[in-house]
Amino acid sequence: MSEFLKRTISGLLFVIVLAGAIYIDQISFFIVFLSITIATMLEFYHLGLKAKLRPQSLLGVFIGMAFFTWSYFYSSGKIELITLFGIIPLLVSIFVVELYRHQQKPMQNIAFTMLGIFYIAFPFSLTNFITINGASYNMVYNPNILLGVLFLAWANDTGAYVVGVSMGKHKMIPRISPKKSWEGFAGGIAVTLLVAWINSMVFDEVSSRHWLVIGLISSLMAVLGDLVESMFKRSIGVKDSGKFLPGHGGLLDRFDALIMVLPMVYVYLEVMMII
Asked: Cβ atoms within 10 A of the Cβ of 205, count?
């Protein structure tokens, strides 16, 4: 089986399973994205071990879980904003715990532990605010916008890969990602905008004009997210963050684009008062 076919089949199955779980109901969405947050953070901290660091993996993942769970219940209107202060002692505990670990690189360990929380758990937590619409104070679960954003991120990845492999000649940043090309970048934008237009006909919560802007934001940030993760991996000397999906690598490899897409799309949705 060719690498492209393997990548296509595994990617399609993953999209179907993830989209189906999100669309079923609010509980399945919570379970799926909490699980993704945990698994992705564990992959990230494993990269730290390969970089000869000793991040506080379990504590970092626990804080990430706590923040995701808090955002879920807060966006659902079940707890008050002040409860967020309960996360602060957990963040402080990272420094306290490091005092007793007797590690050679305490500053790097603390920094890498904190980075896992803000780089992964924070963006995924925003999915709660995107799917649970509190703008009208009725806290209705609606996965359509998130599904649309996921389709945009995947469309960019597919378009960039296909065009890059077939036509890519001019490299973007070869020292970080030798296979990334400007032709692939343009192909990713074109396919993403096409899917954004399709989204506007399927998910009418957002107008076509806004979907096209979201598509452009998603395409630009998806490339940035992929390059940032490539920079991390190249600095450590690894090819993939894991082996979760054939042809795609680990979960972090699969969600690196979305990690950068979610915060910027959420800001746009809030500024334009769409959610």
From this structure: 15
